[in-house]
């Protein structure tokens, strides 16, 4: 019997470029295995596919080694944050408050 293939996309945005790859994988393939099958590791050799955080359509997947892909999924590889967004907002608010107090 012919095994059904699932068409998925793998997306990664590095600092200097973005890549979107399409790959057909057998039914039951895990998210992590689909990443490896896509060949994205050859495009970005510094990317640690075994440990990198991933998601599907913007939702983080906590178990990519067991979660099977569905046809049409877009697997996204996430980079670590350079700064904590809450801390950046706090610093911006403090700077704005200081500027307001100087202008009064």
UniProtKB/TrEMBL annotation:
Signal peptide interval: none
Pfam families cross-referenced by the UniProt entry: Ub-RnfH
SUPFAM superfamilies: MoaD/ThiS (SSF54285)
InterPro entries listed in its UniProt record: Mopterin_synth/thiamin_S_b (IPR016155), RnfH (IPR005346), RnfH_sf (IPR037021)
Family as reported in the entry's similarity comment: Belongs to the UPF0125 (RnfH) family.
Protein name stated in the entry: UPF0125 protein SAMN05216205_4076
């Amino acid at each position: 019997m012919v095994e059904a293939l699932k068409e998925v996309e793998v997306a990664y945005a590095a600092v200097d470029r973005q890549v979107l790859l399409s790959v057909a994988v057998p039914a039951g393939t895990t998210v992590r295995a689909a990443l490896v099958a896509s060949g994205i590791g050859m495009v970005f050799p510094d990317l640690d596919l075994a440990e990198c955080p991933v998601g599907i359509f913007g939702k983080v997947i906590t178990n990519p080694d067991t979660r099977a892909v569905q046809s049409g999924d877009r697997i996204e590889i996430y980079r670590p944050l350079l700064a904590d967004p809450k801390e950046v907002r706090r610093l911006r608010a403090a700077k704005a408050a200081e500027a307001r107090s100087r202008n009064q």
